[in-house]
Amino acid sequence: MQSTVNALVPTGFGINCEAETRYALQRAGAEVETPHLNDLIDDGARLARTRILVLAGGFAFGDHLGAGRALANRLRARLGDALGRFVADGGLVLGICNGFQTMARLGLLPSGRVGKQQISLTTNRHSTFYDGWVKLRFDPQSPCVFTRGIEQLDLPVRHGEGRLLPAASVEQQILDQRLGVCRYVDQAGEPSERFPDNPNGSWQQLAGICDPSGRLFGLMPHPEAYLYPENHPHWRREPGVSRPTGQLLFVNAVEACRRG
Amino acid sequence: MTTRIEVELQPQIADPHGESIRWRAENYLGIELESVRTRTIYKLDGKINAAHASAIRDALTDPVIERSAIGRLDLPRCDWLITVGFRPGVTDNVGRTARRFVADLLCTPLDAVAEVFTETQYLVAAPTIDRPTAERVAAELLANPIIQRIEVNAAHAYRDQPIDLSVPRAGSDSKAHVATITLDEDPAALLALSQRRQLALNSDEMVAIRNYYAQPEVCARRQARGLPSSPTDVELEVLAQTWSEHCKHKIFAATIRYEDRAGNTEVIDSLFKTYIVKTTKQVGERIDWLVSVFHDNAGIVRLDADWNLVYKVETHNSPSALDPYGGAITGIVGVNRDPLGTGRGAALLTNVWGYCFGPPDYRGPLPGGLQPPRRIRDGVHQGVIDGGNQSGIPYSRGWELFDPRFIGKPLVFCGTVGLIPARIEGIPSEHKEIAPDDHIVMVGGRIGKDGIHGATFSSDALDGQVSSQAVQIGDPITQKTMADMLLEARDAGLYRTLTDNGAGGLSSSVGEIAQLAGGAELWLDRAPLKYPGLDPWEILLSEAQERMTLAVPDKQLEAFLELARRREVEATVIGRFANSGQLTVCYGERIVAELPLSFLHDGCPTMQLSAIEPVARGVEPSEAGIALDFEKPQQLLSDMIGYFNLCAKSKTARRYDHEVKGLSVIKPLLGVYGDVPADASAMRVRHGADAGILLAEGALPYLADIDAGAMAAACVDLAVRRIVAAGGRLGRIAALDNFCWPDPILSDKTPDGPEKLGALVRCCRSLAAACIELDLPLISGKDSMKNDAILDGVKISIPPTLLFSAIAWVDDVSKLRDLVIPCGDHQLYLLGDAAAEALGGSELYRTISRRVGREITGRQAPVIDPTRTRTVCEALTEIADRGWISAAHAPQLGGVALGLAQMSLAANRGLDIQLPAAPNTLAALFAEGGSRFLLATSDDNANALERWAATQAIPLIRIGRTAQDPDLRIACGEARIELPLETLRQLFHQKDL
């Protein structure tokens, strides 16, 4: 019998992708809980019983002070120690969109620790929120455990603040350690600066980065919004075309936990 | 003491918000600015020590890209500083979140933290502009004076000014006051009172109120209860809200004497009962999935054994005209509360929106106090975008139509579909019950002066004289937090029922659900206020947003309040239901209002109105001296697809989230470039199941210029064809009706009232006939009856507009289809009624009107026969069931030619089309007849389809095929259209701003 992998997806205050994230994890074989953030804060020990923490997409606290800032502030102030232990003990953290922005504010990426912020996810170059599908190419040499075996994936982006800008001090580390997990590419599969292939103008066309262990991963596109063939915008136009779906990231996460 | 913190992007980081303002100043106002940078100012209104101030500053600053200061940041080179903050009492969502942020950071309770006010500062580099120009940028681009304060400073002077530490603190120390209002004998004086107090009641209604108070037994009872014999201001306001057109739908309930042109008369006892309720009842006998209609906040239909669907569409026209952003965001989060407040409370699944605006390039005069159409449009979009996105609700449908008559009153339709378990704790979820001892609990936001008189105000024409109180700003996050908590409470069985606080505030919500218990007693002094100084009537009427009213049983009260506390949702017991038969309102020890529910809800006199069949006033081309074949059809098609009604609007629409929840199946925008609107949109309703819903609508206000009856028939036909094109089936479609009308009541200001009411009668009749024929129950609806504005003393009325929204459901979403022709070779067909001669109200006529500068509308609208709609829909469904359809489309605006252009653009493929030129070229290409579809069939299935069609009565014409080269070619008689796709797409996007 396979061992149980527990996953936590906190909810509340404007986090809004918990249902699809939970379903993706369940389908991948995880036991999933979606506690309200305040209940998790009151019982931080729940984190110790978990292997995967997903900071799901949404508009936590309306993103009123800048995307992810208010949520990161609350996590840091009221759950910081438990989160630090969870990460130090080898837990997996996946931050999707608003969750990625929150991880950035917590300093988790690329350092792998709760600390000073090292990267910023700022206003898209064209200034507005954008919902559309993008093509991503994954670095096969990245240490990211979530994306093993994935070369290319179509996923939707839905954000206004997704432009990745690293502090000068971590640029070289991201490049040298292959922490830039996936990049926005054009139809031919080449990294692109052009809107809408690249929806935000990120540094190095990056859509997501991980920490050096590969266990902490944040990305702007939404793998949990591509769980059925019919989610793809061209599912009818290209019948019979079978594509990898966003489900793969969650399957990888659960398998990585099983491998230990 | 105020602490001021300024935050801005570091100078080397681009500022996209500033850049977009620079761009808009240049492109919208013709004002060239060198650059614009933005700053956020936080003003913390309370005692904060230096260490805390510094910690707060650090936490509010992104160290990678931002810099900040306590006090003032230094000024880079710039010429003007424009500072925009809110007026006192206006919702400051960012400030509210900042306050919570500070509480978290300092680990202190929220109550102990200073209130935070925010401002945005624009640093404008433009050495050549003068102060009036800078002020114009401020007033026309950056702020709305109704709700915001603007300060414009020259940079050189600003440096020497003291640091501004003022905050827009609201409220006053004045003691709560209740006035007694004497009602005059003279009806004219009563009417004057109604106008003075913005009650929007007519003299009959005022007289009915006076007569109620004059009854000796009423006087005696009031004396015994310590109330004056004349009404208190609280009572008068409650009556005005409850009896407002907005809440009571008096026009739809009126007795109408209708006279047609032949002089025949008929008396209609309520349009609502005669044409809406009766229709649904009649259709209801043939279907078995109606769950709850008419008596709740939204209609409910059965999806399957375990789940029900809830759907409601609302309008928010008047508030959006004044403050487009605030009005629209309030519109969308407001309609979200309808499904949330239906039955035991539904989860919110998806939103729809649709707008009618003045043309964005309109440069003419505007009614007093109103903004130009482009600015209204931008604000409305941004409001609904923020409302939907921040709530985590995708949109499924979005459309826009344009006409100069919408400059005074834009129409802003917002709707929401909800999903609710069929049974909760074993009880049907639609059951609404209240026990007489249940607590009245208000949940969500606090009460302020926002939105007071919203219901009565929307029942009047706009005249530019409005106070900021009539406007609210929604806060999606407060509402989302509340909605999450309420669904949690619902599933834990912690309340008995709930309803939303919308127009009329507590007065309406408690007044309505008090009927379930048989009475209620409210304690207004316990209601949580945003700031002090509200009089009891204001507390009762406030339309401050994000509030629901619940009935909570005594034994659940503690658990309910505890859950609310843990979720940081404010919940307050503000009264108790009772079986007194009265709505009793107390403030402290004192009763300030008491009205029997019977009088409150049934005392409003029925209006007696007269209606007359309208005269068709259209202008035929010949009458305008225009020969119809004067233009090449290619030019007409190019003009049409490049103009606002039909051009791509994907740039704006893609700022709305349409994928959150991960359930989308047919997206609202389709095709290779994702820029062509779908006929109908579809989504799963929950994860792990293949059942789904389809949504579509019909709105064709231009036809009402010819005949509102023709408009209704065409709207129904269009919505149904769209649903069926995508895979829905007749018999599993429910519908919503939203009427937006110009004032149809005869008065000095409205001498043509009877004709406008006559148009409404025709619209309702034709709607009812079509719905009965097509098995469409009307499960919910709304009317907005005062859509007029005054411009230079002249009234501009909107064209009467019906929005007909359809919802259908299917067992397996993977069987659905759309207008995108798949890869491979395909034949194209026209199924149904090809020939439609009438061009009245068509996009073709509007296009020609624009070109020649003379208005032609035509006098003949296309004739729509619902029985034909049924026949052609059933034929399409059969063809689809046989597996022969690879793409389907219901053409409408711009006719078959535009329908083909849309299919070509969506597939990004050329088409070779040969259309029969009957009855003539222009009609064959551009007439907007109903009951027809364009279909694509793969080469493999074409023969089988044609053999089958030969045995059927319904016409099926092969009109062409997919082309090998990327050109759209349409031959029709002598006429030729040949447009490379690249050109077509350029035209399609030229106004996509």
Characterization of this structure:
Chain A is 26% helix and 21% strand. With 260 residues, chain A is of the alpha/beta class. Chain A has one domain: 3-Layer(aba) Sandwich (Rossmann fold), CATH 3.40.50. In chain A, the strands form 2 sheets. In chain A, strands 2-1-3-4-11-10-9-6-7 form a 9-stranded mixed sheet. In chain A, helix 1 links the parallel strand 1 (6-8) and strand 2 (31-33). The longest helix of chain A is centred in the first third of the chain and has 20 residues, at 69-88. The radius of gyration of chain A is 17 Å and the shape is globular. Chain B has 993 residues and is of the alpha+beta class. Among the domains of chain B are: 2-158, 2-Layer Sandwich (Mth169, Chain: A), CATH 3.30.1280.10; 188-231, no CATH class; 433-606, Alpha-Beta Complex (Phosphoribosyl-aminoimidazole Synthetase, Chain A, domain 2). In chain B, 34% of the residues lie in helices and 25% in strands. Chain B is built from 31 helices and 41 strands. In chain B, the strands form 9 sheets. A 7-stranded mixed sheet of chain B has the order 18-20-17-21-19-22-23, with helices on both faces. In chain B, strand 15 (423-424) and strand 16 (427-428) form a beta hairpin. Chain B is globular. Mean pLDDT of chain B is 93; it is low at 461-466. Chains A and B meet through helix 1, helix 3, strand 5 and strand 6 of A and helix 1, helix 3, helix 15 and helix 17 of B.
CATH architecture descriptor text of the domain at 433-606 in chain B: Alpha-Beta Complex
> What's the CATH topology label of chain A?
Rossmann fold
For the largest interface, the chains and their residue counts are: A-B, 65 and 66 residues
CATH superfamily of the domain at 433-606 in chain B: PurM-like C-terminal domain
Q: Count the beta strands of chain A.
A: 11
CATH-defined architecture of chain A:
3-Layer(aba) Sandwich
Mean pLDDT of chain B: 93
Strand numbers in spatial order across the main sheet of chain A: 2-1-3-4-11-10-9-6-7
For the biggest sheet of chain B, the summary is: 7 strands, mixed
Give me the Rg of chain A, rounded.
17 Å
CATH superfamily of chain A: Class I glutamine amidotransferase (GATase) domain
The structural class of chain A is alpha/beta
Largest sheet data of chain A: 9 strands, mixed
Using the coordinates above, name the CATH class of the domain at 433-606 in chain B: Alpha Beta
Give me the side-by-side strand order of the main sheet of chain B. Answer: 18-20-17-21-19-22-23
